[in-house]
Design brief:
heterotrimer; A mainly alpha (88); B alpha/beta (355); C alpha/beta (398); A: 88 residues; mainly alpha; Non-ribosomal Peptide Synthetase Peptidyl Carrier Protein, Chain A; 4 helices; 55% helix; C: 398 residues; alpha/beta; Peroxisomal Thiolase, Chain A, domain 1; 2 domains; ten-stranded mixed β-sheet; two-stranded antiparallel ribbon; 14 strands; globular
Chain lengths: 88, 355, 398
């Protein structure tokens, strides 16, 4: 899968997993920070994204502290998925 | 020391969310179990970022709590205390079923975090930034009663000037299906408004979220005075319950004669309702009797809905026709006795007076 | 100041002992109850350490003389063992001689059975004796029936501070005259449900937990039950029965986040401050704090700041005993209160096991080895729950 295609898919999946009723996929800028300001996500959302990665991509993140760097933005997350899926 | 009910928020299977209308037109759901009428939008009450992960019962709880304190004109209650028989059933079921279906993998922390029984009381505290006393009781037909007992005591011991107290329970389809195996429910859809007319085995389950703002002083918004509450667990005979009623009346220097209306937790179940009939016949033979579970259904904290009805009757001095079970509506309603029991095991008695 | 409240009986069961003497022995010998899980079949059994009570349900039932185990969840069995010991130690012969209440704490209820039978109920429509034991009140009612209590009974659930809040309500209902005596405490068995719950929050330590250590990684869950008998000033008529005084309590809500504690420990501070104010004591009067100290990143630094903010410059002896008993969740408030009382009575400070390195953000270390001959007039036990339901209790020597 291409990076941009994956970004579009991830935007939809995150909206669904985190139940972001009011957010449209195009509202999530692939280069903006997912956490902190903006969407108002917190540590529980990070854990939910970890579940999503395992469920949909077979990628396991054991240490939630890693999430901080991996989930910095949707694009960084997409790159991480592509790299780790290839590695598997 | 006196305790007053000075604010109410009620989300129920009836149109009770608007405190300025009483009685509203009664709603018949003709169903196997009664479900709450949801507000048009929770957005008016809860920030969408916060509410997105909240299940129905948590939203109902928060919203009715906020309506209640607004009704009382209070922003920071001296205590937040909730009672719930089963807590957040939907979150608990989701987490349990994910665990069973996925063999303990891919578990969602959100459902677990919200499955604990104190979620609603703490979420209310988070929204209000209320650092005061906070607790949750989870004892079947004593859940709401324990919360109320705790609140009255806190206010009497002058720890709190006010307290926000709620009774909340939800029903889900799975929960209905599982509890159906116990044989407590009717097996066909039922016109809830006719629940008292055809007594048989079983009743109609329901749900609701009712919050009361209690204040130590009477104020313009006050509905009534809450004179006292007693509970009796598994009484050997109805004399024990009658004894508790007499004690509660005596503590308030009243007799059965002073009671203008009895509100019972009758639910159409032949055996369970016979208990109320026995008490009413022996103690309050000539008095008017009303019921409330034809409006809200049976659930662990249904007595909170009963208290909602009693408080409104005292405020508006009007008994809804649909609630009258026996006798004539008295002209003035000064004192109401509310008697509820759940499966004959948890009995509670509350005494309320007009202000 | 309100009327005085006394503890006249205690009973406990946890991974470190099935009664008070065994518990005391384990604590004074530094014997932890942590190990691999045996009573529950979970996929995590080789990854996690728990503090499990070393008896099967059948063995617990045999200890209790229960021949037909149907309808008895593990939560109930643990509760009965501990409550029996508490009632016996208070020398209660006639439960209804004076108005006696029962306030028990619980969160997982009968989930140990529901997680086995739920689909039998839901899909196969096959009920069994456990279908009505799912809720939290079931174990409380089994206790009430066992002791013949028909007055005030209730069940508290404020997650991991539940038992502390049960004791707090019991004390208040005695003070205001509603009750003369209360059996108060809590019970919780391990379940797959909450093991997976805490695991989904990624706060389980695969190794023995290290509360207040710079390299702490999380919780080891435990199970157990504890009950105390609380009485009012009438207990002074027979002072030989008095174990200690419950001299202060404080309940505050942190109002911060459903699962996280605030960085500065505001809720913990408020709960301890309220308890101190109520007891009329000064911070310096507290000799020992049994900390909530779960071993998570978040709790220990938050609680540590709260302790510093309230007690500095003189920090009392502090230890978390969760590396002994595991985190007994809803029972933790009473289990750790009893441990605090045992330390006070025996002039000992039980250690915070597995501690090596002080937390960078804090200016104090917990007691890491058993201390003896320490006179303690007043001790404080902290219990914090999800949702910021924080409670502190103060026990004083009698």
């Amino acid at each position: 899968m291409e990076e941009n295609e994956l970004i579009d898919k991830l935007r939809k999946e995150i909206i669904q997993q985190l139940n972001l009723e009011d957010v449209k996929p195009e509202d999530i800028d692939p280069d903006s920070a997912l956490f902190g300001e903006g969407l108002g996500l917190d540590s529980i959302d990070a854990l939910e994204i970890i579940v999503l990665l395992e469920k949909n991509y077979g990628i396991k993140i054991e240490d939630p502290k890693q999430g901080k760097t991996i989930f910095a933005s949707i694009r960084i997350l997409a790159k991480y998925i592509l790299a780790n899926q290839k590695a598997q | 020391m006196s305790t007053y009910i000075s604010g109410i928020g009620c989300i129920s299977p009836q149109k009770t969310i608007d405190n300025s209308v009483f009685p509203a037109e009664a709603v018949n759901q003709n169903a196997l179990f009664l479900q709450c009428i949801q507000p048009e939008s929770y957005r008016d009450y809860i920030n969408p970022i916060l509410s997105r992960r909240l299940s129905k019962i948590i939203k109902m709880g928060i919203t009715s709590a906020l309506i209640s304190i607004k009704d009382a004109g209070i922003s920071n209650p001296g205590a937040i205390i909730t009672g719930t028989g089963l807590g957040c059933v939907e979150d608990t079921e989701k987490f349990l079923m994910t665990m069973l279906d996925n063999n303990e993998t891919l578990m969602n922390p959100t459902n677990f975090m919200q499955s604990t029984y104190n979620t609603i009381s703490s979420q209310i505290a988070i929204i209000l930034k209320c650092f005061n006393y906070n607790s949750t009781y989870v004892h079947r037909g004593f859940s709401f009663e324990s919360a109320l007992t705790d609140a009255i005591d806190l206010m009497q011991s002058t720890v709190a000037e006010s307290a926000l107290v709620g009774g909340i329970d939800e029903i889900t389809e799975n929960h209905f299906n599982v509890t159906s195996l116990l044989g407590h429910w009717r097996t066909k859809p039922q016109n809830n408004l006719e629940l008292f007319e055809h007594k048989q085995k079983g009743t109609l389950p329901g749900e609701g979220s009712v919050f009361f703002t209690l204040t130590r002083n009477k104020q313009a918004s006050t509905y009534c005075e809450l004179k006292g509450i007693k509970t009796v667990y598994k009484p050997a005979t109805m004399d024990v319950v009658a004894g508790s009623i007499c004690a509660l009346l005596a503590e308030n220097k009243l007799t059965a004669h002073n009671i203008d209306l009895i509100i019972t937790g009758m639910n159409g179940d032949q055996q369970g309702d016979a208990v109320y009939d026995e008490i009413c016949q022996t103690m309050f033979d000539t008095k008017a009797v009303a019921g409330f579970k034809n409006l809200c259904g049976e659930y662990h904290t249904a007595s909170a809905f009963g208290l909602w009805l009693a408080a409104n009757i005292l405020k508006w001095q009007e008994v809804p026709k649909i609630s009258i079970y026996k006798g004539f509506r008295p002209n003035t309603i000064q004192n109401i006795l509310l008697h509820n029991h759940v499966e004959g095991k948890q009995h509670s008695i509350m005494l309320l007076s007009k202000v | 100041m309100g009327k005085r409240i006394f503890v006249t009986g205690m009973g406990i069961i946890s991974a470190i002992g099935k009664n008070i003497p065994d518990t005391f022995l384990s604590l004074s010998q530094g014997r932890s109850g942590l190990g691999r899980i045996k009573q529950i079949d979970t996929i995590h059994k080789n990854e996690i350490l728990v503090a499990e009570v070393g008896f099967s349900n059948s063995e617990l039932a045999a200890m209790l003389g229960i021949t037909d185990q149907q309808g008895y969840t593990r939560t109930t069995l643990l509760a009965l063992v501990a409550a029996n010991e508490a009632v016996a130690s208070a020398q209660i012969t006639d439960m209804n001689q004076i108005p006696t209440g029962l306030i028990s704490a619980n969160t997982v209820g009968g989930m140990d059975k529901s997680e086995i039978y739920y689909y039998d109920y839901l899909k196969l429509k096959k009920p069994n004796s456990y279908i009505e034991t799912h809720d939290c009140a079931d174990s409380t009612e089994k206790l009430a029936d066992h002791f013949g209590i028909n007055g005030f009974i209730s069940t508290v659930s404020t997650a991991c501070s539940s038992a502390a809040n049960a004791m707090l309500l019991g004390a208040r209902l005695i003070q205001n005259g509603t009750l003369k005596r209360v059996i108060a405490g809590g019970t919780e068995c391990l379940t797959k449900f909450h093991i997976n719950g805490f695991n989904s929050l990624k706060i389980l330590d695969p190794d023995p937990c290290k509360p207040f250590d710079q390299n702490r990684k999380g919780i080891n869950l435990g199970e157990g039950a504890g009950y105390v008998i609380l009485e009012g000033e009438e207990a002074l008529q027979n002072p030989g029965r008095i174990i200690c005084e419950l001299s202060g309590w404080g309940n505050a809500c942190e109002a911060f986040h459903q699962t996280a504690s605030s960085p500065d420990g505001n809720g913990a501070f408020l709960a301890m401050k309220k308890a101190l104010d109520m007891s009329g004591l000064k911070p310096a009067d507290i000799t020992y704090i049994n900390a909530h100290g779960t071993g998570t990143d978040n709790n220990d630094v938050s609680e540590g700041h709260a302790i510093e903010n309230l007690f500095a410059p003189t920090i009392p002896y502090v230890s978390s005993t969760k590396a002994f008993t595991g985190h007994t969740t809803s029972a933790a408030g009473v289990v750790e209160s009893i441990i605090s009382i045992l330390g006070m009575k025996n002039r000992m400070i039980f250690p915070n096991l597995n501690f090596t390195q002080q937390i960078e953000e804090l200016n104090f270390s917990p007691v890491s080895e058993l201390k003896t001959n320490i006179e303690q007039k007043h001790v404080l036990s902290n219990s914090f729950g999800f949702g910021g339901n924080n409670t502190a209790l103060i026990f004083s020597k009698f």
